[in-house]
Every structure is written in structure tokens, then in C-alpha cells.
Design brief:
By secondary structure, the chain is an all-alpha fold. It has one domain. Helix content is 68%, strand content 3%. A two-stranded antiparallel sheet has the order 1-2. A hairpin with a 2-residue loop joins strand 1 and strand 2. The radius of gyration is 19 Å and the shape is globular.
Length: 295
């Protein structure tokens, strides 16, 4: 039982990171109808910034400053690389985000070097006991932080003017323009929010093990999360991230005991298996909006 509870807590912690990344994907997609493949680079940038800033300031302040800087980077990307592409085919814009991702990662890798950079988080690998079950503090911090961020986003989207404008733009860009909403501002803000979320996620990814040039690969697991929850569903992104995290953790814990014939490290591909199973049943994800075409 202790092993199961530890696996669930670990899965929820890791799933919280996937949820933050998935939220960034979904927020950009809802606003622009483009899947941003630049999220891995933004996540890596945030983690590396924290690893440098923590040398000069408090860890929590370093995370806030890094999130703000990556949000600013998101604004710059939207303004310089994507704004001129408004009206172009979605596929072309998505490829541009992939190019942006590669360029940023090449630059950031120069700051990482060949050594693993430590985040300097206050939790390290410390543990405490819940009902006799040892739990790493960083997983609890991941879950709590994600819960706070999701709550803040809910309040923002439902009770602020700009949040309502973003929801209107996500629903119908032409109607939003007719109502006087600055769609360009919404696009820019969506990239800024996604950048800040990626920075926080990158910080949590770097806790314990640190950050190296391959850390960005973790962000790709957020793709099954958004497909699972639905590309246009913010609640779906959160639930999808948590489900993928728990599934991956449980497979990693019990695979060798119950299904050793699956081979080594099957937990790596478990998120994609879960995604495929869900797509066979619900092609638009658990909470996605089906597209209805009438002739």
C-alpha cells in the first residue's frame, strides 16, 4: 500500500508539471488556433534562468523573475515571428514555432554547457511522512503550486475584462473584433501566459536532478496530456496532465512486477499509449469540443 501511495503522489507531482505545460499549449491554441511547438524551449529557458538567478537572489524571487522574463520572451516571439504570419495557413505558423523552438534551445544550450545545472530549490530530495508514507517535498510543492496557478487562471478568465476578452477571442475571433476587442493583444497575452507557465514547469522539472541539454524532451509528454484532455479545454489540460503523470508513475512502479514482457522503460511510452486508447474512443479528447460540419 505504501508503494502505491508513493507512486500516486509522485504521479500527481509529475502530472502537475505536465498540466502547467499543457495549459500553455491550450491557451495559445484557443486564442490563435495554432499548436505552439516552442513550449519546450520556453520551459528550458525558464529553468536555466532560475539556475543563474538563484545565485544572486532568493529561490522564490528567482522563479518569479524568471517567469516574468520568459513571459517577455513569449511576447517578443509573438510580435516578431508570428504576428506577421496572421492569415497564413495554420500549418505554416506551427512550423515557424518549431523553428523558434530550435533556435532558442541552441542558444540556451550554450548557457547550460556540458554540466548539469542545479536549480537551487529549497526542497532538494527531502521527504516527510504522511500517514507513515514517505513523500518528497518537491512533489507536494508541485501539486500545491499548480492548484494555486489553476485557481488564479480561473479567476482571471472569468472575472477580469482582459480574461473575458480572451475567452471571447477563443470562441470567435471575428465576433471579438466586431465587439472592439484587440485580438492582437489577446494573442500576445496568451504567449506571455504560456511562457510564464512553461518557466514554472521548467523549474519543477529541474528540482532534484537539475537541468541539462536534454531536459526539454520532458515537455513533449505534455502533448499526450492536451490530446487526452482536448486541445481547446483548459480543465482538460489539467486533468489530462494529472492522468498522464499518474499513469506514467504507476507503469514505472509495477511494470517489472506484473508485465515484465513489455520491456525496459515502458513508462516512457505509456503516456502515448494512454493517448491512443482515448483517441480511439473520443477523437476530440475527454473534454474537447467536437467539430460539427453541416452540408
Amino acid at each position: 500500500m505504501n508503494e502505491l501511495l508513493q507512486s500516486l503522489v509522485r504521479g500527481l507531482g509529475t502530472g502537475s508539471v505536465y498540466a502547467l505545460l499543457a495549459l500553455g499549449f491550450v491557451i495559445i491554441y484557443k486564442s490563435t488556433r495554432v499548436i505552439s511547438f516552442a513550449q519546450p524551449a520556453l520551459m528550458l529557458t525558464g529553468a536555466v534562468l532560475v539556475s543563474y538567478l538563484v545565485l544572486e537572489m532568493n529561490f522564490y524571487l528567482a522563479v518569479v523573475v524568471a517567469a516574468m522574463l520568459v513571459a517577455l520572451l513569449g511576447l517578443v516571439i509573438e510580435r516578431t515571428a508570428l504576428r506577421p504570419m496572421v492569415g497564413k495557413p495554420v500549418f505554416v505558423v506551427a512550423i515557424i514555432t518549431l523553428g523558434v523552438d530550435i533556435v532558442i534551445r541552441v542558444v540556451i544550450n550554450g548557457f547550460i554547457g556540458r554540466e548539469v545545472r542545479q536549480i537551487g530549490d529549497p526542497w532538494r530530495l527531502d521527504t516527510f511522512s504522511i500517514g507513515g508514507v514517505p513523500v518528497q517535498e518537491r512533489y507536494v510543492a508541485m501539486v500545491v503550486t499548480t492548484a494555486v496557478i489553476v485557481t488564479a487562471l480561473f479567476l482571471f478568465f472569468n472575472y477580469t475584462r482582459i480574461g473575458l476578452a480572451m475567452r471571447a477571442t477563443a470562441f470567435d475571433q471575428e465576433v471579438a473584433l466586431a465587439q472592439g476587442i484587440s485580438v492582437g493583444t489577446v494573442f500576445a497575452l496568451s504567449w506571455a501566459i504560456a511562457g510564464a507557465l512553461a518557466a514554472v514547469a521548467g523549474t519543477f522539472v529541474g528540482t532534484g536532478a537539475g537541468v541539462d541539454q536534454q531536459t526539454w524532451i520532458i515537455a513533449l509528454v505534455a502533448l499526450p496530456a492536451i490530446i487526452l484532455g482536448g486541445l481547446d479545454s483548459i480543465p482538460g489540460a489539467v486533468i489530462g496532465g494529472l492522468v498522464i503523470g499518474v499513469a506514467q508513475s504507476l507503469v514505472g512502479t509495477y511494470q517489472d512486477t506484473y508485465v515484465p514482457w513489455l520491456g525496459q522503460n515502458f513508462a516512457v511510452v505509456a503516456p502515448y499509449v494512454v493517448m491512443l486508447i482515448v483517441l480511439l474512443v473520443r477523437p476530440y479528447g475527454l473534454f474537447g469540443t467536437p467539430e460539427v460540419e453541416r452540408l
